[in-house]
């Protein structure tokens, strides 16, 4: 099982990377993986899990805690606070562009570089289209018992949620208060359930019981 989160950083304000992580990772393992993304060493990272609207869900203080018990749905934000007083990331963020030597490219060279980068980006990360996981979504039945991210619940919604990301999503009402919402995302309601019993997942993470 895996979960997709958006990673932000206290110093790298433009960073908002979509990262897919195994639910079997511990918080310590997650920090190691994030080091290559943001440059902050694991021992200097403090992680905070945020809802799409920015509300704090949990402070990940226990390095031994499992991600599966904390991040139960896709689309959440994992914010990295850099606690390193000699942080390279912070130094780079504070560096003025006026201090950086500029390289002038001819118009032809610039166009070639842009085309090369676009080709690499397209090859390395296929875009998520509006019908992403449509087949998996078609197999889900609203009102039926299910297992969402390994936790028992009931399918309450199947459809698209533009507030999160393109493609198909499933809304699950969990049997216990292990969710992150009450069936609404960024002010838009897709189903109704008690607070902290709702969650939104990609259809491939929901299994019919």
Average per-residue pLDDT, rounded, comes to 88
Specify Rg, calculated over alpha carbons.
20 Å
Assigned CATH class of the largest domain: Alpha Beta
Give the beta-strand count.
12
Q: How does the helix and strand content classify structurally?
A: alpha+beta
How many alpha or pi helices? 4
Query: In the CATH classification, which architecture of the largest domain applies?
Result: Roll
General form: globular
CATH evolutionary superfamily of the largest domain: Phosphatidylinositol 3-kinase Catalytic Subunit, Chain A, domain 1
Helix content: 10-25%
Strands in their spatial order, largest beta sheet: 2-1-5-3-4
Low-confidence segments: none
Number of separate domains: 3
Describe the structure.
This protein has 209 residues and is of the alpha+beta class. The protein folds into 3 domains: 92 residues, Roll (Ubiquitin-like (UB roll)), CATH 3.10.20; 29 residues; 75 residues, CAP Gly-rich-like domain (SH3 type barrels, Roll). The strands form 3 sheets. A 5-stranded mixed β-sheet has the order 2-1-5-3-4, covered by helices on one side. A 5-stranded antiparallel β-sheet has the order 11-8-7-6-12. Strands 9-10 form a two-stranded antiparallel ribbon. The two termini are 17 Å apart. The model has no long low-confidence stretch (mean pLDDT 88).
């Amino acid at each position: 099982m895996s979960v997709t989160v958006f990673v932000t950083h206290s110093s790298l304000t433009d960073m908002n990377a979509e990262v897919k992580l195994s639910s079997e990772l511990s918080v310590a393992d997650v920090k190691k993986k994030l080091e290559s993304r943001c440059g902050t060493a694991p021992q200097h990272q403090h992680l905070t899990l945020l809802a799409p609207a920015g509300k704090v869900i949990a402070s990940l203080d226990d390095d031994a805690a499992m991600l599966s018990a904390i991040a139960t749905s896709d689309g959440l934000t994992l914010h990295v606070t850099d606690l390193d007083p000699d942080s390279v990331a912070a130094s780079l963020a504070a560096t003025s562009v006026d201090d950086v030597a500029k390289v002038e490219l001819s118009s032809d060279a610039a166009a070639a570089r842009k085309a090369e980068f676009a080709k690499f980006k397209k090859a390395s990360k296929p875009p998520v289209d509006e019908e992403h996981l449509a087949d998996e979504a078609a197999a889900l039945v609203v009102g039926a018992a299910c297992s969402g991210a390994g936790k028992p619940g009931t399918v309450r919604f199947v459809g698209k949620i533009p507030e999160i990301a393109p493609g198909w999503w499933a809304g699950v009402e969990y049997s216990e208060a292990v969710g992150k919402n009450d069936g609404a995302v960024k002010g838009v309601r897709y189903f109704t359930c008690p607070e902290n019993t709702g969650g939104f997942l990609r259809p491939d993470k929901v299994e019919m019981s």
